[in-house]
Amino acid sequence: MKALIVGATFNSNFGDLLFSHLFYNKCKEVGFERVSFWQWPKHVLCDFCRNELDYHEKISLWQALRYDVLILQSGGMMGEPYYSRPTTKLRFLRFVLPCLIFTLLRKPVYVLGSGGSPIYAGWLRRMMVYVLNHAKYIAVRNQETHDYYKQAGVKNTIHVTSDTAQIITSDCLPGLNIEADLENFMADHKLLMLHFSYSKFSDEIVAEKLAPAINTFLNEHPEYVVILATDKVTDSAALENSKAKNAILLERVKIYNYYDSWQLAALINRMDVVITTSLHVGIIGSSLGKSVLSFSLFYDKAKRYYKQIGEQGRCLPLREINAQEIYAQLQNYYNKPISLSAQLRELAAYNLSIIEGITKECC
């Protein structure tokens, strides 16, 4: 039996890479004859993802269509944070098209740990609803996604689980491999990570709002230093000259150059406080029992997660707050680590346990 995995494998995004690891390894573990990734159109499976997964197989579109089952791995592929005609077309080709083809071929499609949001293009929404109504199994990561899919017209049964990444604990992580000067900088200090997905806009807003709050905190807490990180490997070098870095007290900040998702997770495990604009850096920080503060640029999906774990007070929309509010948030939460419930971790693991059932069902 052959399994085809569809996911956001076209860039170096931290959360999507972790999902690719988890789903690829699980599919191999349960004994599929062959496990491959959807690779059409060109660059849907990028070199960074291939190298990190040690996956170098290339299959044609014709070969992919001869696989027995399609697994849509966890992530926000079935949603649009904003409308853009080019990105809507890419979303269709990368995620919806393979699911649609397998559905029309009457082959089983499993949607495991999806995060959904409004789809602005009506034609794409209709296709997604068609796929979901014919899916063999649907698990979504929060109640809001369940409700949105139902409102959009999905009649199929939808199971509410939780984010798959929450299965990651410190026991899963490799040793941290960093340069000596960064290790020396971190030694004998409390550690605060400032993480954001680098762009010109995010750099400016982090420098304007987060950096002043962090500087005030550093002046009052001399035991802390800052590790500045991103999860776009092509943009790590840009942090050296970023406004965000230059806005933080010079002697109290060092950059971590991202090159591997598991190494970033291991770095998070060394932190005491994690401040992030990203959903999955916050989720991994929460899973590892860190004090996490979320200042999201895509607030709705972050808000859903922190509400689900009972920590909604930690999540604020970065566009709508000022440095004083951020400082107050930091003072309130910096020494309050998150503890996830066993139930949330079980729900997260359930997304992967469905894969075991696929192979058993067909034996």
Concise overview:
The protein has 363 residues and is an alpha/beta fold. The protein contains 14 helices and 12 strands. Strands 2-1-3-4-5-6 form a 6-stranded parallel beta sheet, sandwiched between helices. The protein has a 6-stranded parallel beta sheet with strand order 9-8-7-10-11-12, with helices on both faces.
Report on this model:
45% of the residues lie in helices and 15% in strands. The protein has 14 helices and 12 strands. Helix 1 links the parallel strand 1 and strand 2.
Largest sheet: 6 strands, parallel
Provide a count of the helices: 14
Rg calculated over all Cα atoms? 21 Å
Unreliable sequence segments: none
Mean of the pLDDT scores?
A: 94
Task: Give me the secondary-structure topology.
Layout: E1 2-6, H1 14-29, E2 34-37, H2 47-53, H3 61-64, E3 69-72, H4 85-104, E4 109-114, H5 122-134, E5 137-140, H6 143-152, E6 159-160, H7 180-186, E7 190-195, H8 200-220, E8 224-229, H9 243-247, E9 253-255, H10 261-270, E10 273-276, H11 279-287, E11 291-296, H12 299-308, E12 315-317, H13 323-333, H14 342-361
Parallel strand pairs: 1-2, 1-3, 3-4, 4-5, 5-6, 7-8, 7-10, 8-9, 10-11, 11-12
